[in-house]
């Protein structure tokens, strides 16, 4: 299938919507830098990006896909994210573009234009070379990654993750769901979250309407404080730090949102899904579980954070049905062994300075020929490969 490397340059420090300033594309043989600020009709580019027969190769694609969606109304697909693929091939989970290029191509990229104002014209030759470098190596990197994924039988693991990660609905904004991204909201009650949902929806709509950052209207910190001690009057609202610059219109809108949030029936207040909290005394069990994940990660060459984090392990320990480790490739790779560990059927031991994964038959005090006795560990009937 043909491939097209894609990257974008944009600004969003002073706006709600990102401002698309430059689009770079490469086939591996040709590179183009396209100026959306001077071209009125980008329909041919949209058709290219939405062509299902062309794989769009992007590194760390989430922001680029969002920018293309709102900048030129383009739902780019299918997408291959080289950052996500790198985590399946032995690199860390959020490997930078420069590190991936150096790893696969042996090329060191400079960072000379990382703070460029891409909206200013004309762009000088150095800026264009820097921008084009962001797609120059991606087609070859994609081919190397694809070959390795096929050889290791991991393409079937990667693609469902890739498709879920790059789905256009991930980048569409619903004001009623803006509260889900509210920072420092984990201490709020369900009723307070109902207030947050209404205020965040108002803030989101206002930010979009005026194309300004959310924090310019009201900060997350101030919004959370309003939800913790919701005022009934403008005078009480103004006593909360961070509300001094609010207009009377904004004050009235916040009070109206609070009124709506208070009127919501208890059963309709938001339920925030939290990961399972470890039971008292189970921290050591989680540490053992993570040690097992690290062993598998090192052996298989997959970033441990991609396999499971502490929350995922806590969910498995709590036997949650929707645990990521209970199904799919994670279950096959390490979930079964973790369940064996919890059932006492699998153990960990230190041998010759290395942690090893063993099938447990009994406990004993032991040592190897080159190490002194090192405490209680699992013996083995068969080492798990």
Provide a descriptive summary of the structure in words.
The chain is an alpha/beta fold and 385 residues long. It has helices spanning 43-49, 62-71, 82-87, 97-105, 125-136, 138-151, 155-166, 190-210, 214-217, 220-228, 234-238, 248-263, 283-300, 304-307, 310-317, 328-342, and strands spanning 3-11, 19-26, 31-34, 55-58, 79-81, 346-351, 354-359, 363-365, 376-378. The chain folds into three domains: 3-171, 2-Layer Sandwich (Nucleotidyltransferase, domain 5), CATH 3.30.420; 175-268, DNA polymerase, domain 1, CATH 1.10.150.80; 283-378, HRDC domain (DNA polymerase, domain 1, Orthogonal Bundle). The protein contains 16 helices and nine strands. The strands form three sheets. Strands 3-2-1-4-5 form a five-stranded mixed β-sheet. A two-stranded antiparallel ribbon has the order 6-7. A hairpin with a 2-residue loop joins strand 6 (346-351) and strand 7. Helix 13 (283-300) packs across helix 16 (328-342). 30% of the residues are buried. Residues 362-367 and 371-385 have low confidence and may be disordered.
What structural keywords apply?
DNA polymerase, domain 1, five-stranded mixed sheet, disordered C terminus, Nucleotidyltransferase, domain 5, two-stranded antiparallel ribbon, alpha/beta, 3 domains, 385 residues, flat
């Amino acid at each position: 299938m043909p491939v097209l490397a894609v990257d974008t340059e944009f600004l969003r420090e002073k706006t709600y919507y990102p401002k698309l300033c430059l689009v770079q594309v490469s086939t591996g043989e040709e590179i183009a830098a396209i100026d959306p600020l001077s071209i009125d009709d980008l329909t041919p580019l949209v058709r290219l990006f939405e062509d299902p027969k062309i794989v769009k190769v992007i590194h760390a694609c989430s922001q680029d896909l969002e920018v293309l969606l709102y900048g030129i109304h383009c739902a780019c697909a299918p997408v291959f994210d080289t950052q996500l693929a790198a985590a399946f091939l032995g690199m860390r989970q959020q490997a930078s573009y420069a590190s991936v290029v150096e790893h696969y191509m042996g090329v060191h990229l400079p960072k000379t234009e990382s703070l460029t104002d891409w909206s200013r014209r004309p762009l000088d030759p150095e800026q264009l070379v820097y921008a084009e470098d962001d797609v120059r190596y991606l087609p070859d990197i994609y081919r190397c990654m694809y070959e390795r994924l096929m050889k290791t039988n991991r393409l079937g693991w990667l693609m469902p993750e890739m498709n879920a990660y790059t789905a256009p609905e991930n980048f569409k904004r619903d004001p009623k769901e803006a509260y889900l991204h509210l920072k420092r909201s984990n201490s709020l009650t369900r009723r307070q979250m109902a207030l947050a949902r209404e205020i965040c929806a108002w803030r989101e709509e206002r930010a979009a309407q005026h194309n300004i950052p959310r924090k310019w209207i009201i900060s997350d910190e101030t919004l959370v404080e309003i939800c913790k001690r919701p005022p009934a009057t403008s005078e009480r609202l103004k006593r909360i730090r961070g509300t001094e610059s609010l207009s009377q219109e904004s004050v009235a809108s916040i009070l109206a949102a609070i009124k709506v949030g208070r009127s919501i029936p208890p059963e309709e207040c938001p339920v925030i899904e939290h990961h399972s909290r470890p039971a008292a005394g189970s921290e050591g069990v989680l540490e053992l579980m993570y040690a097992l994940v690290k062993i598998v990660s090192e052996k298989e060459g997959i970033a441990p954070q991609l396999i499971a984090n502490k929350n995922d392990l806590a969910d498995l320990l709590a036997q949650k049905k929707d645990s990521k480790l209970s199904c799919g490739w994670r279950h096959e790779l390490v979930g079964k062994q973790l369940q064996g560990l919890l059932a006492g059927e699998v153990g960990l031991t230190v041998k010759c300075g290395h942690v090893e994964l063993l099938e447990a038959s009994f406990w004993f005090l032991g040592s190897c020929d080159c190490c002194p006795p090192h405490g209680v560990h699992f013996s083995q009937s068969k080492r798990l490969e």
